Amino acid sequence: MVQVREVIRRWQAGENKTAIGRASGISRRTAGRYIEAAQSLGVAQDGEPPGEGVLAQLLQRNHAGPLPGRTGPVTVVLTGHEARLAQWLNEERLKLSRIHELLAQDGVAVSYTTLRRYVRRAGLWKQPQTTVRMSDWAAGEVAEMDFGRLGSIVDAATGKRQTIWALVIVLPYSRHQFVWPLLQQTLEESIGGLERGWRFFGGVPRRLILDNFAAAIAGPDALQPRPTRGFLEYSQERGFLIDAARVRRPKDKPHVERSIQYVRERFFKGASFRDLEDCRQQAERWCSEVAGLRVHGTTRQLPRTVFEAEERLTLQPYDGVIYDVPQWKEVAVHPDHHISFGQALYSVPSTTCPPGTKLEVRGDHGLVKLYKKGELAKVHPRRPRGGRATDPDDYPAEKTAYALRAPDRIVHRACELGPNVEVFATKLFEGPLPWAKMRQGQKLLSLGEKYSAARLDAACARALSFELVDVRRLHNILLRALDTEERPVEEATVPLGSRFARPPGAFDHRQQRLVEATA
To answer: Of 281, 314, 347, which residue sits at a domain end?
Structure first.
């Protein structure tokens, strides 16, 4: 409006179009168009200055754009490419800079500015939607978390090049942030970075808005996102709620999205690091001394100062104890009543978890817990790789003694079958190598189940009377039903007569000769 008024004022003052254009910062041709439009509306060069209504009409008539009925050469060059432009922009979602390159490869030589102006006039480029500014979060209410690729460093000790990612946490209220460089976006490394972040801030927010990375979110759903068991357990331990952003919706966590580029450009690029640990130490100092003490572009305040004065005390307390990150795994019980977890074996109760049962295992540095349909089934101390944790009570009762090579257990069970069975079992395991008779001991117990305890006790009594301690022959006694026969009465021993008895001296011929000589 001011520019149009200046053009008409200078025209009525007698200046020509060239001088008007030079003074107003427009071309001679544009100045002439304003003057022609003013004359068509009844404005005379020697008349009164136009009012606000006339100036508004002049501005509307001469708004930037092509003159009616006139077509520039660029329009002719791009004519016929509307379908491809629409596909690239709306379906393939290519950037206009890439479309400009593709057109150049096909021989369509136009400038980037011309291409942008053309797609806007043709309605091929979706206009940005209007939006509203969301209300700010309360102090200590929310933190936003995201990952971003920083670049690569060469480890001074190994000489290997490593790709470095950054876990960035931003508190939207104060704009204070924390950066944790890492190598992988695993559950253990992510929780480790969050733990260092809570220690840096001195507290934990009540809600964490995060990206849909696989270690934390199992099912990305806009309405009901499903967190992984490990990350859900961590959030319960620290007391914050998980709020997963929608997929490809950066506006759900706008503060941390803008911080990724800031961290890459202002912290990582141009810096030198010895290794990952050195990068982490420098990142923490940079967050506190550089990023925290800059004037933020939106709030125009120092993030660290606002955080210390208004937000720190509103955070939930952090105890400082490093969280022991658990591992969760779904397993099946093996035929030997064990499961495999962390390359170690752990026994499970055979009565409630027979072979083939599906279990969920939670393991940390101290314990391994086994769950069946959400209920705790067994707890073991953690074993190293190649180790084994076996509870004898987990085995079936009939196999425990054999599996543990424990003769005492077989003797104890034999006592329940009868006194003679106990004596037979005790004699069976006498000797320097009792565990060598374990199979016979198991066979002895199985005979009691097959033939009844009473028959086995009777058969053992018969075998012991002949000092026969052999399970195979004991089995033959039961097969032939000899245990049911009455034992024959023992006959009295008839002593031999003394007709041919001689005294001991009768056979000593030397003594007999000595008697004859003295006589």
So the answer is: 314
In a domain, 66, yes or no: no
CATH number of the domain bearing residue 297: 3.30.420.10
User: What number of CA atoms fall less than 13 Å from residue 69's CA on the CB side?
Assistant: 0
Tens digit of each residue's pLDDT (9 = 90 or more) over 74-107? 667 888 888 888 888 888 888 888 999 999 898 8
Q: Which region holds residue 369: left if phi is over 0, alpha if psi is between -120 and 50, else beta?
A: beta
Cβ–Cβ < 8 Å for 354, 333: yes
DSSP class of 316 = B
- Spell 153-191 as b/e; 16+ CB within 10 A means b: beeeeeeeebebbbbbbbbbbbbbbbbbbbeebebebbb
Give the total number of structural domains in the chain.
5
> Do residues 39 and 30 lie in contact, with contact meaning Cβ atoms separated by under 8 Å?
no
Among 314, 335, 357, the domain boundary falls at 314
159-208 pLDDT, tens digit per residue, is: 999 999 999 999 999 999 999 999 999 999 999 999 999 999 999 999 99
Question: Which residue bears the tokens 């257990």?
Answer: 409
CB–CB of 454/416 below 8 Å?
A: no
Q: Report the C-alpha gap between 302 and 296 in whole angstroms.
A: 6
102 φ, ψ (degrees, to nearest 5): -65, -40
Residues 57 and 37 in one domain: yes
Cα–Cα dist 509/511, whole Å: 5
Residues 223 and 299 in one domain: yes
Domain for residue 500, yes or no?
Answer: no
Residue 241 lies in a domain: yes
Contacts of 71 (CB under 8 A, 6+ apart): none
Q: Are residues 202 and 301 in the same domain?
A: yes
Q: How do beta strands 388-389 and 375-381 pair?
A: unpaired
103 contacts: CB under 8 Å, gap ≥ 6: 81, 110, 115
230 in the same domain as 269: yes
Answer yes or no: do 403 and 346 share one domain. no
The whole-number pLDDT of residue 69 equals: 47
Beta-bridge partners for 207: 142, 241
| Nearest CA among 400, 348, 396, 397 for reference residue 375 | 348
Q: Quote the domain boundaries for residue 21.
A: 2-61
Count CB neighbours of 251 within 10 A.
10
- Model confidence pLDDT, tens digit, residues 330-378: 999 999 899 999 999 999 999 999 999 999 999 999 999 999 998 999 9
Note whether 306 and 178 are same-domain residues.
yes
CA distance 255 to 252: 9
Same domain, 250 and 278: yes
State residue 120's pLDDT score.
84
441 close to 410: Cβ distance less than 8 angstroms: yes
Residue given tokens 């369509």 in the structure block: 108
> In the 8-state DSSP scheme, what is residue 434?
G
Residue 502 forms part of a structural domain: no
C-alpha atoms less than 13 angstroms from C-alpha of 228 in its C-beta half-sphere = 20
Q: What is the mean pLDDT of residues 282-310?
A: 96
Tell me, yes or no, whether 404 and 417 share the same domain: yes
